[in-house]
Amino acid sequence: MGGYAAVVLAGGAGRRLGGVAKPLTTVGGRPMLDRVLAAVADAVPRVVVGPPTLCVPPGVHRTTEQPPGGGPVAGLAAGLSTVDIAATTAVLAADLPFLTRNAVAVLHARLSTNDGAVYVDDNGRRQTLCGVWRTEALRRRLRETTPHAGARLKDLLAGLTVVEVAAPPGGPPPWYDCDSPEKLDQAERWAAMATLEDWLTEVRTALALDDATDSALVLDLAREVAHGVARPAAPLTAYLLGLAVGRGADPRAAAQAIAALARSWPAESDG
Question: 4-179 domain in CATH 3.90.550.10?
Answer without folding.
Answer: yes
